[in-house]
Write a structure and sequence with these properties.
Length: 204
Amino acid sequence: MGICRDSQHKRRSTGGRRIAIHKKRKYELGRPAAMTKMGEKRISTLRTMGGNKKYRALRLDHGNFSWPSESVTRKTRIIDVLYNAGNMEFVRTKTLTKGAVIMVDATPFRQFFVSKYNTILGQKKGKSVSEADQEVLNRKKSKHLQRKLDGRKEAAKIDSKITEQAATGRLMARISSRPGQSGRCDGYILEGKELEFYQRKLKK
């Protein structure tokens, strides 16, 4: 039969049957879901209407994620799928879809934070500083740069929930792109009320 997106085969809102006035058309076709999984990048190209292209991501392991409150975007590794409002089976199968809540590597964001504020994000007392972070801290700075960094000290106060996550080396994020259509897995880091909401969901 094939997947069809027409509404001729459906009943009316009143429950009455519809008589089809034409056969299936190419422009009414539907395609199977991409069901993008975690793994080494694999993308297939589809020819669509008007000679355009769609990029089906079959496997993805990286994506561009933005940190809204800091207005910064970094490419980072996808670690795990935590929650999917559409279908919780996608969590078990590690399927990436738009709106899915995932866990990403915090390293690129920690490095950004160190270089901008000269402070380590999610540093626990008594724990040794990583070599990469220590290298940035020890970097030679001009007096002008030092004054700049000192002026940013007050702005370096971050949401405690983000700091707790950064200490573990992971951050919760939400996918905002459509991996099965664009071949990309991009999104944003969860903060504030939205982060609290999904943390409550995961506790249930």
